[in-house]
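Example record for the data management plan.
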Amino acid sequence: MDLGLSGKTALITGGTSGIGLAIAQRLGAEGCSVAVCGRHKGKLDAALAGLKGVEARVFAADICDAGEVAALVDDVTKAFGGIDIVVSNAGTHLAGRFDALAGEDLMRHFRTKVAGPWELARCVAPQMRRRGGGRFIVIIGQAGKVPQANAIASAVVNAAQHAFVKSLADDLAPSRILVNAVCPSRIRTPLTDGLTLHNEVFLGRSLEQQETRWGAEVPLGRWGTPDDIANAVAFLASCRAEFICGANIDVDGGHQRSIF
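Corresponding structural encoding:
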């Protein structure tokens, strides 16, 4: 199926490993020029070396810094002539109970996953309007739909991401800029290699030891891969998803039990 992505330019934040890098590879394979954003030069260089058969460049920026976000959009626009697709993937899971996390921990998490994408959208929307439309896709972890005591900060911030996506979708839809979310759960990445959750049977054990129980919680019976997320992003970015707007799509093998 032709996704109509050839000749488009995609900017992926948090694109140096795991899900972000898989998205960069997938969009590049569909014919996109890819701009990969991260904070660390070494990781950016390694990501660029790993992207095979893709027209790609890397850009160092801290998504929490409004000035760096503006410069990032300007630099990518100058390098490729414009931006058609943004995938906001920067950020990580913040574990910990209420009494273990300071307010600054919560605010840093919020700046990375909400305030940063807010500035990114503000900077990129005007040029997307001039180009006749675009795609803005936010990757949102499961805690936004499945609150838990041991991940209260991620639950609060990820829920804010959902509100951001829905509200921004309403704002930008008349300009044919489609805003959507992809919501992973139980995806094997460098992040989950060391992750512990409140409902593990073998708390603190290796992922391989934990996975027998975690896989049992996934109706498909297995963990997903970054490529599973990348495939969903490629579809949402494509001309085949032109009537999907303000949606959040679970890519989790059926794991999440929420109904919205």
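Summary line stored alongside the record: The first strand starts at residue 9 and ends at 13.
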